[in-house]
Design brief:
Layout: H1 35-48, H2 53-56, H3 68-85, H4 89-95, H5 101-112, H6 116-129, H7 137-154, H8 162-179, H9 185-192, H10 200-213, H11 217-222, H12 225-237
Helix pairs in contact: 3-5, 6-7, 9-12
Amino acid sequence: PPRDPTQNPSSPYHIHPCESPSTVIVAPALVGNNYHSWSRSFRMDLVSKNKMGFLNGSIPVPATIDPLFLHWERCNRLIMSWLLNSLSPSIAQNVIYFDKAIDIWIDLHERFSQGDLLQIAELQEEVYAFNQGTRNVTDYFTSLKALWEELDNFRPLSACECSAKTYHTQDFIIRFLKGLDDRFAVVRSQVLLLDPLPSVNQIFSLVIQHERQQPDSTSSIAEPNSFANTVVDRARRTPNT
């Protein structure tokens, strides 16, 4: 007889003993305006559980006479429970009578992802107006990166778009450097002259080093050249990863 797929831990039909229908796998619950962060979190969790195929259509519904059908139905009901547990009561009430998890997933996407262009426009405006201000470099970088990643969530790049990813990374580097305060003006200019640019993490590390070496804004402006030379030298010696 064919091997029972539920006993194979690598099979999407396998259900771990800790995977209960009562589990809340995403918090906070979907309330509408948090759809993109909510859906991203839900996808990540299902990918880690090897169950995303039940929502993206890559695991089709077997025929009712197929021995896999009962296993599929069990997984389908489990994922439906996870979805319902991760929705606000009013939204859950609207989808509780669906029979397939994928139909709930599609319905939620169609209802709550329609404001994408408006939200993209608002995020782009926020990203390009964002600057260091009174923040230290670490706080500024972290906040800017969070905004950038939120924007990425609306327009993810596919794995094959290598050139687009390169330009996208360059855009972030430019935005990060341009938003730094005037203490980093020479560092910014030196880095932007490099071809190819160092990685995001290399540039962040160099700017952090500069911030730590300069006790106040006066000294950081007065002696920029030695650090600018360090930026060029280190970036040339360090692989761009």
